[in-house]
Amino acid sequence: MDLKKEFLKYFQYWPWFLLSLIVFVGAAFIFIKITPPTYETSASIFIDKKQEDQTKIITISTDKKNSEDKLEDEIRLITSNEFLLGVVKKLNLNFTYYEKVFSVKNNNVNEVPFVLIPTISKDSLPVVSYEIKVNQEGFLITEPESEQTYNIKGYDGKEAIEGLPFKIQLSPKAKKNPSFYFEKEYKVNLEPTGVALKNLKGSLVVLSDENAKGVLEMKHVSSSPDRSRKILSEIIDQFDKTIVINKQKVYRNTVSYLNQRIKNFSKEKDSIESVKEKYLQSNDIGVMENYIVEQTADRSQKKESSMLNDKQIALTNFAINDVKQAGPAQALGTDYNLESTTVNQMLVSYNAKLMDSQMILQRAQSNNPAYISLMTQLRAQKQEILNSLQGYLNFLTQTSKANRSEQSIAEAKVKSIPTKDKILGNINSNLTTKEETYVALLQKKEEAVLNGAILESNLKTLNAPETNYSAIFPQPKAFMLGAFLFGLLLPFGITYVRLFLDTKIHNEEDIQKVITDVPILGHIPKISVSDKLDNTATSRSLIAEASRALMSNISYLLPRKKESKGNVILFTSSIQGEGKSFCAFHNAITISNLNKKVLLIGVDLRNPQLHDYFNIKRNVSGLSDFLANKTDNWKEFLQNDNQFSKNLDVLFAGEAPPNPSQLITNSNFEALIEEAKTIYDFIILDTAPVQIVSDTLNFSHLADVTVFVVKYDYTDKSNLVQVSNFIKKEQLKNVGIVINGVNMKNAYGYGYGVSYGYQYQEKKVKKPWYKKGLAVKGA
């Protein structure tokens, strides 16, 4: 990147940069002077969360870190509408007082020699300003917007004026010497409570200090430091009172809650005791431990009794079988271990009689009446024994059934012991919990009563409200620097956008980006009308020097010819107004001043321009007349009597024909060129624009060099695309480009400056200041 070239692109607009700087820096300076400075007042407080937690009777959260670090609730409280509304009312922020120092700047004051008494609700006050002066008669009040004045007589404030939302009276201090305030003028701003509250919230900032736990930073921005300090002090005071009020409210709620809970728990404890009593009574339980021992012993006893009874049944069955199997002369057993005394005696008695029968049988025969009688008795007695055993067996069987029923009942009672013990345990556990909670509630109540007796705020003021008297707005240095930078950036941005959107040609780079490998032959400067014809052989004007340089560069493009014939140079452009006729005219003069015979032909039959430079009427006969009549001699139409050079002949275009394309393509024109080449050293053709009509392309092959003219700050880059296509298709031959109408002072990318060539100084033309630096369109 060429920094110098980039700088020159913007430097040409230096008047606009200067004007922008003057406007913005001046406006910033005036703004700083007329705007009252705004100051920041700050204060910091510490909220001891540990103390608050220690005084809590009921703690819900156990997250100490969360309780100590976060102050969102406190910030939310301080910035709430309800809280700040109390500050607005306490400090009467509906009224703002100023002492008028001069018309564009007011000084805020806190003490004025009068008192305003609203006659309407503060919520309904209008947003309006009044100017107040104290005079000998009373007060003179003016409303600046409507310019309406009110004269109030007296200083006691008894008079109510229609249209004023307040009464006014002198303050007690001012009543001692009212004349002291006669020369002073005051201004008061009124605003309803809602607006005052909104303004207070907008100027107040409350933040927690990240580096210090429990610390709140409060900042208030205002043009009155004393007013800001009062606001912050009132906020701290109100917040301190709010903390105590909230603690008292918590204390009352806590004691009320504890009393209610103690009452409820007392009822619940009595209810559980009643349930326990009924349960013990219904289950015949005195003491659970004794009940368990009794039921276990009863079960064991029932089981043992049942086993003994079963044993007797078995012995009885054995005895019955044994008795039945015994023969008539066989003794019965007496060792059955039966617990029936009657049966045992009967067995002993039977055996005794059997022995008697045996003794009789030994002394007598079996038919002995005594023996027979005794045997009959033994049979009868044996049957009685069997009957007794059967009866005893039936008794034992019944007893066994009763024992099994009692044993089942005892077993069921033993199995139900764990369930009853669990139920009783739950009852006892609930009762114990209720008793412990009841005791704890009584303890908490005593603690609450003690804490309520010594309630205090956990707020401490670390830094009292203090004002930083370095104004935060407007800051002169930063404001002036910002205005200076904005004053530069605004014209720079506008210029950048303008240049970015600019599609005109300004330098060689613009051309080479579209058309490559085509040489730039030179630059024709923009000159004033009076200098257009200053191109004599001895002239040192800009146009003369530029034309000589252009001819020198064209000579390098001319092909070397074996035959001694003249060279044909064709001048054309994309569209009208780019100065091709101007360049062709000066190039013809420059070559003729080099002792070369030159023929200048106006081939633009549609819009001829050459006659203007020679001060000749447009309808003079010329090329179109020759082409229309083959019998004419083209030399008869030449104009060789001119004040520029004796070596220059001119063939003007002539009257505009109805069919220029057909005329220019007939053989007469080519014959003219061929004949002229034998007479003249150079033939200069001023042709029609190639992008508008095709006339030039029809005879462009006759030219040895084609000079394509573009105009500085006029030719659009898009026009070069079509020309590039003509060159690629060889419809234009041996092309070189010349840039016309270059402003040597302002054109960036050329570096000409004021002078050009020899020590020639361009004639200075006085221009309005607002046009200096702006590009002037070329000729």
TrEMBL record:
GO cellular component, one term: plasma membrane
Subcellular location, record wording: Cell membrane
Span of domain Polysaccharide chain length determinant N-terminal: 11-91
Signal peptide feature range: none
CDD domains named in the record: BY-kinase
Keywords: ATP-binding, Cell membrane, Membrane, Nucleotide-binding, Transmembrane, Transmembrane helix
Designated name of the protein: Polysaccharide chain length determinant N-terminal domain-containing protein
Transmembrane regions: 12-32, 478-501
Keyword Cell membrane belongs to the record: yes
Entry-linked SUPFAM superfamilies: P-loop containing nucleoside triphosphate hydrolases (SSF52540)
Species this protein is from: Flavobacterium crocinum
An MF annotation (GO) of this entry: ATP binding
InterPro entries (UniProt xref): Bact_polysacc_biosynth/exp (IPR050445), LPS_length_determ_N (IPR003856), P-loop_NTPase (IPR027417), Wzc-like_C (IPR005702)
Membrane topology: Multi-pass membrane protein
One Pfam assignment: Wzz
